Amino acid sequence: MFRKLFKYDMRYIARFWWILALTAIGASFMGSFVLRYLISNFLNSDVSFAIKFMAINFLAVVAITIIAAFIVTQIFIYVRYYKHFFTDEGYLTFTLPVSRRDLLLSKMVNAFFWTVASYLLSFLCVLIFAIFSPPAEIGGPFINPIVFEKIGNAIVVAWKESGLGLIIFAVLWLATQTFSLIYSISLGYFCIALGSTIAKKHKIMLAIGLYYAISIAVSIVKNYLQTLFVTIIPDGLDVYLEGASDATVFFAEVIVTAIPCCMMAALAFAAYSATRTCIERKLNLA
Amino acid sequence: MSTPVLSCKGLCKSYKAGTPVLDKLDFELPAGKVVGLLGPNGCGKSTLMKLICGILVPDAGEITVCGEPRSEKTNAYISYLPERTYFNSWMRVDELINYFKEFYTDFDEVLARKMLSDLRIDTHSKLKALSKGTKEKVQLVLVMARRAKLYLLDEPIAGVDPAARDYILQTIIQNYNPDACVVIATHLIRDIEPTLDEFAFLGFGGIVMLSGSADEVRAEHGKSLDELFKEVFKYVP
Questions:
Q1: Does residue B120 fall inside a structural domain?
Q2: Among partner residues A4, A89, A94, which is closest to B88 by beta-carbon distance?
Q3: What does each C-alpha distance from A56 to A10, A138, B61 come to in angstroms?
Q4: Going edge to edge, which strands form the sheet with B6-16?
C-alpha cells in the first residue's frame, strides 16, 4: 500500500515539476549567455546603457526564476499535505485501508525526494552559469574549462590532506544535512497538523505562527549547544589533547563533528514523532 | 448467532466539553439489512458515521466491524460516502476508478463503468469540470461498486435530481451484497422509506427515540416513517 500511496504523491508534484525544472534550466542557459555577453562588453562604450540595463534586469529575472522553482516546489509539497489530510480530501485519505503511519511516511519521503531534487536543480542552474558564463578570454572557448579544473584540484588537494578523514567528515556532513532536512519537513508537517487540530479558523496562519515560534525556540537552544560543543569544547580539547597521538586527535575531532549530527537526528525524530502522534490520536476532521 | 457487521458499545463523542453529541451509544447491526439512520440536524448521524470509519476519534467506547476492533484494517470492509464532495478535483473519473481499483481489492470496475454509463457520465472528464450533482453521482457509483461488508451512506441522494434518485436507490438495493449491511443517514425519509428494512430515529445526544423493522412499525402505528418522524421530532412553537 505504501508504494501505491507514494506513487500518487509523486505523480501529484511530478505533473508540474518538470515544467519548473525545464523553465529554470532554460533560463539559466539564457542567463549564462547574457552574463557572458555582459562580462565581455561591460566596459565597451559601443554597447548602449539601455542594453546593459536590460541584460542586468534579465539576469535578475533568471535568479528569481531559479529561486521560485525551489519555493514553488516547497509550497506544492505543503499544499498537497494539507489538502490531502486536513480538508475534505481527508475523507478519502483516512478511509483508505492504509495505516496513518504509512500515509505520513509517504508524504515525508515524497517531500524529501522533491526537496533534494529542487536543491539539485538549483545546483545545476548555478553550474550552468559557472560553466557557460565566464569567458576565459574574449573569443575564447565556449565552455570554460577552468571550472572543471578548479573543482578537480579542490577534490585532489582535500583527498591528499585528509584521506579517510575526508570520507568520514563527508558522511557526517551528509547525515547532518539529511537529518536537518527531515527535521525541517517534519516541523512544517507538525505545525500544520497542530494548527488544524486546535484551530477552527485561520488554521494556516496559526500553522505559520507555530512554525516560526518553534523554529526560533529550537534554533536558540541549538545554537547554544552547538557553540558549547563545536567552539568551547574543541578549544578545551586542544589543551587536553596536547601531545596526544594523531589518531587520538582525529578520533576526538570525529566525535565533536558527530555531535551536531546527533542533535539534528534527535530533533528530526522528535518532530516526526510529534506529527505522527497528532495525526494518529488527535486528528478530528470537521 | 452470527457476528454483527457493526457493533458500538458505550460510544461517546463531544466537540465541546459538557455537550455530548453521542452519549454512551450502544447498538448492533446484522448483515443483510438496509438501515435508515434518521434524525434532526445536529443529532449526531454524520458524527456516528465518521467515528465508525475513523475520521473522528471517539472520546470513549468501542467500535467493532465484522468482529474486529476499528482500525485501518476494518476500513477495507467499509464503503463510506460522506455528505460532501471529497475527491481531488484535478483527477479524471477514469483516474478515480483506477485509484479505487488499486486501494480496494473488492472494487468492481465493470460495475462502476456500467453505472457511470447508465448515468451518462463521461469518464474522461476531470472532476472539476462536472456539476456538483454529477460529482455526487460519481462518488456514489464508486462507493456502491465495492463489494464491501458495511456501506455507510451519508445523505446519498440529497444533491441529485429526482430521476437520478430512483436510479441510485435501485442501485443500492440491487448491488449490495446479502452479507453486507447498508446504513443510510438522510432527511429525505419519504424518498428513502421504501428502501429501508430497519430504521432508528436518533435524537439529540445520540439517544435512540424509536427503532425497529420499518414494516412492523408502520403496521403498528398505521403511519409512514415520514409521518412518525414528524410526530416524534415535532417542534413546539
A1: no
A2: A89
A3: 37, 19, 67
A4: B19-29, B6-16, B60-65, B68-69
Residue B223 sits in which domain range? 6-83+149-232
Q: Nearest CA to CA, how far is B223 from chain A (Å)?
A: 36
Question: How many domains, chain B?
Answer: 1
Mean pLDDT over A35-56 rounds to 75
Looking at residue A84, its amino acid is: H
Q: Is the pLDDT of residue A280 over 70?
A: yes
pLDDT band with cut points at 50, 70 and 90 for residue B233 = confident
Cell numbers given for B11: 460510544
Which of B57, B71, B64, B53 shows the shortest CA–CA distance to B27? B64
Instruction: At B159, list the grid cell.
Output: 444533491
> CA of A51: how far to CAs of A38, A42, A48, B56, in Å?
9, 10, 6, 62
CA distance A210 to A213: 5
Q: What is the CATH number of the domain that holds B69?
A: 3.40.50.300
Report if residue B16 sits inside a domain.
yes
| Average per-residue pLDDT for chain A | 83
Three-state secondary structure call for residue B210: strand
A and B: number of Cβ contacts within 8 A: 54
A197: nearest CA partner in chain B: B56
Query: What average pLDDT does the segment A150-173 reach?
Result: 80
Is residue B97 within 8 Å of B142, Cβ to Cβ? yes
Is B98 contained in some domain?
no
**What pLDDT shows up at residue A42?**
67
On the 0-12 / 13-18 / 19+ scale of CB atoms within 10 A, B51 is: buried
Query: pLDDT grade, residue A26 (50/70/90)?
Result: very high
* A260 contacts: CB under 8 Å, gap ≥ 6: A176, A226, A229, A230
Interface ipTM: 0.87
B78, A94: Cβ pair inside 8 Å?
no
* Domain assignment of residue B44, yes or no: yes
**pLDDT per position as a tens digit, B174-201:** 777 778 888 998 888 888 888 888 888 8
Does the distance separating the beta carbons of A91 and B55 come in below 8 Å?
A: yes
Residue A23 — very low, low, confident or very high, per pLDDT cuts 50/70/90?
very high
On whether any CB of chain A is under 8 Å from the CB of B1, the answer is: no
Residue B146 is given by DSSP the state: B
Domain-by-domain residue ranges, chain A? 1-151, 163-286
